[in-house]
Specification:
Helices cover 82% and strands 0% of the residues. With 119 residues, the protein is an all-alpha fold. It has a single domain, classed as 23S rRNA-intervening sequence (de novo design (two linked rop proteins), Up-down Bundle). It starts with 5 loop residues before the first helix and ends with a helix.
Length: 119
């Protein structure tokens, strides 16, 4: 199955690289930031992983399922980024580019899922 442009997979991978770097910085801090870093790391890297897995989908339904999971993970990642800002763990100006990219990934994946669901 191949229902989305390679660009979105490339963007998801680049986003994951940036998330890993952020989580490494958070992991150096004690306490709650480590827990949030683990959550963010899981969701932020899962977007691209699910898109990569969708390429080998056994059926349209399987393909749609993996892309839908990528969308859910993008939304979750957006949530964790917002939480880091709201709790003053990371200054907003440092996370704005990641937050913007998370928003764009959600928008793109939403469009893809809607297209896949239409007859």
């Amino acid at each position: 199955m191949d229902g989305y442009p390679q660009e979105i997979a490339d963007r998801a991978f680049a986003f994951a690289v940036r998330i890993v770097a952020l989580c490494q910085a958070l992991d150096e801090k004690p306490g709650t930031s480590r827990t949030l870093a683990n959550q963010l790391l899981r969701s932020g890297t899962s977007i691209g992983a699910n898109l990569a897995e969708s390429k080998g989908g056994q059926s349209r339904a399987d393909y749609l399922s993996k892309v839908s999971i990528a969308l859910k993970e993008a939304r979750e990642t957006h949530y964790w980024l917002r939480l880091l800002i709201a709790t003053d763990m990371i200054p907003e100006n440092q996370l704005t580019p990641l937050l913007d990219e998370a928003n764009q990934l959600v928008a793109i994946l939403t469009t893809i899922v809607k297209k896949l669901k239409s007859p």
